[in-house]
Specification:
Two copies of one chain form a homodimer. With about 325 residues, chain A is of the alpha/beta class. Chain A has twelve helices and eleven strands. Chain A folds into two domains: about 220 residues, HUPs (Rossmann fold, 3-Layer(aba) Sandwich); about 80 residues, Uridine Diphospho-n-acetylenolpyruvylglucosamine Reductase, domain 3 (2-Layer Sandwich), CATH 3.30.465.
Chain lengths: ~325, ~325
């Protein structure tokens, strides 16, 4: 019989998550920054490791963004690993330099380099998963950030427990719970004082918005975690629908998707939008740059009855209607004649 | 050519909405409380009426909840109608009494009686629509209230411009815009100081939450209004999918829906949940009382492979699996043998 979540200790909950994803007898990479979340994850995993026969490797990235502070974080993580007898791989990466050369925002630059390093370490040790210490409060912040910007269903899915090779065993716990555990168990951690733009927004949401919302629903973080799972299911369901539609009604080439324009026109506007999103993702790898005004412009062409119509959104996606076909294409170079 | 929204006056926007819904040459009932929103709607409609050949009837409900204040509101609305030469129908309704006898919360009781009166007046004058003065801020509040409680896609649809016979021509404007118009045009209105529970929550959201959120996105109200339309489309699309699935795979009787259990089991959990919601709504008229834990319990029965299983949620809905069939039924009295 399953034990209800409320009666389980945080260790039991994490253990259940690891077992659910068949982590027994495997190597795991732990992404550790030195903050409270990651130090709690390190402690808990080090205790569970013998029982599940896990080999743990800690990976730490020194982003070199806060001078001495960053170096002290690195030393702190190394010392913690030392006392727990866990191998620690760390790297100094000049994020500022990378950011400038790639013209990215600081958060994106740091994330790109961090994941690159984590994947490298994962490869080196042939590990099963990379474990990150995101929690339920992070999930709520993500959902609220997306909602405030104006999001579709996907943006309400929040953070996944498992996404590819990234596993997040602390997702069931709020930031408050984790800080309480750290205090109770005397777990030391470092406080990150960086001012990434995204972090400023997250801090504002965490310290200003969420406490206000919790006056209306004290369980808001758990409510959101549960609902994120529902929205994730919804997104996957709709995404599959569009995928199946395209497979049934279109001829797919690498940079060109050729659909029956009459069948496409007969579908609901909502399904047409899903199809546009799916094709855009096929061409560009993600829908991050796709704005809803772009979708509306392509939709207009699909819905026009008369004449051979055409529309191109930058060099990302175009549509051309010609003799009973609606042809989606990527970039000017692959434009159909 | 369409004039962009930004270049239109509020009167032109309202006129466009009325034309879109073919209101020319018809009778309209205006639900007027005496507050800023409704008094602005009254003023604007009285100016548009001659051009579109509209017959306007004002309907006002005195909820008798604030003694003298309520009576003064009623007099205020009647005087305004008098000076605009618009017929005013008003009713004194003892909401407290009705609330006690029906064991409703105050907001539900007031809403039930208000809509009952508005529909009565609509019938009396054979009117085309009832016009209510809900605005974009009301929509944002509704979306946030639902989100905070934990909502599905439907709850993010917010308030519809047109819902059955209810039309809301002020939906494009925020509360702030309306108050600015009232000040500029010297439109007098009454301030409602009631403390319905739902109003307290709405006030909290309006005065505490939304101003904080607007620090991150100053256009949050308009963003939410646009996204509400997207979520409404999504809800309708999913609802139609479930409806079509049921029509294709089930035998529908009044209190009993008999589905092929093998085909049902082969669908994704997300579609199964949509089907449960749809059937619940068929049996009970709405999904207001349907909790996600109830859906999960029914889902479990659908997903069980072995044995003849059964589950009943109160007297609202039950499911019984028997010889290749999944039978949904309403109440114990219609339980299948």
């Amino acid at each position: 019989m399953q034990i209800p979540r409320q009666q389980m200790s945080s260790r039991e909950i994490v253990e259940t998550t690891l077992k659910k994803h068949n982590c027994e007898n495997s190597t795991l990479i732990l992404g550790i920054s030195g903050g409270s979340d990651s130090m709690y994850m390190l402690k808990i995993l080090s205790e569970i490791a013998p029982k599940l026969n896990l080999k743990l490797i800690v990976a730490h990235v020194n982003h070199m963004l806060r001078g001495n502070e960053s170096d002290t974080d690195e030393k702190f993580v190394k010392m913690a690993c030392n006392s727990l007898k866990i191998k620690c791989e760390s790297a100094k990466i000049n994020i500022k330099k990378f950011q400038k050369s790639e013209k990215l925002n600081l958060e994106s630059a740091a994330r790109t380099k961090r994941y690159e390093f984590l994947r490298k370490i994962k490869g080196k040790y042939k590990a099963k998963f990379i474990l990150l210490a995101h929690n339920a409060t992070d999930n709520t912040e993500t959902v609220l950030l997306n909602l405030i910007r104006g999001t579709s269903i996907r943006g309400l899915s929040g953070i996944s427990e498992l996404n590819g090779d990234i596993l997040r065993p602390l997702l069931p716990f709020s930031k408050k719970e984790i800080e309480k555990y750290c205090k109770k168990e005397n777990i030391k951690f470092r406080i990150d004082k960086t001012n990434f733009d995204i972090k400023l927004k997250r801090n504002f949401i965490r310290h200003k918005l969420i406490p206000q919302i919790e006056k209306l629903n004290p369980n808001f973080t758990q409510t959101t975690l549960k609902k994120s799972q529902y929205f994730k299911q919804a997104h996957e369901f709709l995404s599959n629908l569009a995928e199946n539609w395209i497979n049934s009604n279109c001829k797919i080439e690498k940079h060109r998707i050729n659909c029956d324009s009459k069948i496409l026109a007969s579908e609901s506007d909502f399904l047409k939008k899903l199809i546009i999103e799916n094709i855009y993702e096929k061409f560009n790898g993600s829908t991050l740059d796709l704005e809803s005004t772009h979708i509306d412009e392509l939709l207009k062409v699909i819905n026009k009855n008369v004449g051979n119509k055409e529309k191109q959104i930058g060099t990302r996606i175009g549509i051309k209607k010609i003799s009973g076909k609606a042809i989606f294409y990527k970039t000017a170079s692959s434009k159909p004649s």
